[in-house]
């Protein structure tokens, strides 16, 4: 009995170590692009978060994981889309056309799903933090509970294509009560630089 228990513990540790190794590998290979994408969105989407701007808003330093969900298919062939918060449907990403071009193809499917191994949060670089009015989600929630004014942006960890030249990001803006909005952004690396090529509103309050 003790030997069986010991084997289960060892197996669990090995699985967790392998998962952590893959997680760290995904993070390390994408960290440079992640920070470049954050800077691109701040500049190209004109987010008023730089410390040099008047009435600057806050930007969360911790990017949150956006899970890739596989929607269920009913017997009649209709796909059901009840996707939980902080999730995006694989069905909505694959074969979507952006400017008459397929953005993520079926070849990207496995790579997209592997990004569910991303850590729950990733902190942006200190170089970016030094240029913006930064905050954390926890700090802004405390302000909300105290009835204080809060206005901040929160971004998810970018989701990359197989070739790492395309990325999908969701950005939320929260400004108290029934004030806020969400946006989906599609980015492409062109001549070594990230560029927003399309975006649209995902929610508004």
- Average pLDDT across residues? 84
Strand count, sense and closure of the main sheet? Answer: 7 strands, mixed
Low-confidence stretches: 1-17
Rg from Cα: 19 Å
**Structural class estimated from helices and strands:** alpha+beta
Spell out the helices and strands N to C: HEEEEEEHEEHEHEHEEEEE
Assess the beta-strand content as a share of residues: 25-35%
The number of helices is 5
- Overall body shape: globular
Helix amount, in percent? 25-40%
Distance between the termini: 56 Å
Number of strands: 15
Explain the layout of strands and helices.
Elements: H1 2-44, E1 58-60, E2 62-64, E3 67-69, E4 72-73, E5 79-80, E6 87-89, H2 90-93, E7 97-98, E8 101-102, H3 109-114, E9 121-123, H4 126-129, E10 134-135, H5 137-145, E11 152-155, E12 159-160, E13 166-174, E14 180-190, E15 193-204
Parallel strand pairs: 1-10, 1-11, 3-6
Antiparallel strand pairs: 2-9, 4-5, 7-8, 11-13, 12-13, 13-14, 14-15
Report what the structure shows.
The protein is of the alpha+beta class. The chain is 32% helix and 31% strand. The protein has five helices and 15 strands. The strands form five sheets. Strands 1, 10, 11, 12, 13, 14 and 15 form a seven-stranded mixed sheet that branches. The chain has a two-stranded antiparallel sheet with strand order 2-9. Strands 3-6 form a two-stranded parallel ribbon. The radius of gyration is 19 Å and the shape is globular. It starts with a helix and ends with a strand.
């Amino acid at each position: 009995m003790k030997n069986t228990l010991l084997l289960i513990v060892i197996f669990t540790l090995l699985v967790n170590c392998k998962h952590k190794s893959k997680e760290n590998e995904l993070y390390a290979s994408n960290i440079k692009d992640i920070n470049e994408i954050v800077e691109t969105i701040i500049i190209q989407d004109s987010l008023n978060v730089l410390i040099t701007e008047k009435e600057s808003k806050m930007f969360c330093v911790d990017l949150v994981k956006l899970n890739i969900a596989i929607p269920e298919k009913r017997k009649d062939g209709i796909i059901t889309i009840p996707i939980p918060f902080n999730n995006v449907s694989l069905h909505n990403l694959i074969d979507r056309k952006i400017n008459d071009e397929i953005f993520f193809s079926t070849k990207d499917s496995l790579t997209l799903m592997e990004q569910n191994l991303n850590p729950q949060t990733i902190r942006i670089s200190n170089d970016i933090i030094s240029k913006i009015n930064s905050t954390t989600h926890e700090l802004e929630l405390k302000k909300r509970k105290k009835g204080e004014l809060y206005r901040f942006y929160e971004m998810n960890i970018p989701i990359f294509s197989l070739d790492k030249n395309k990325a999908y990001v969701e950005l939320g803006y929260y400004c108290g009560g029934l004030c806020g909005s969400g946006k989906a952004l599609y980015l492409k690396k062109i001549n070594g630089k990230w560029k927003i090529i399309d975006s649209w509103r995902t929610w508004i309050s």
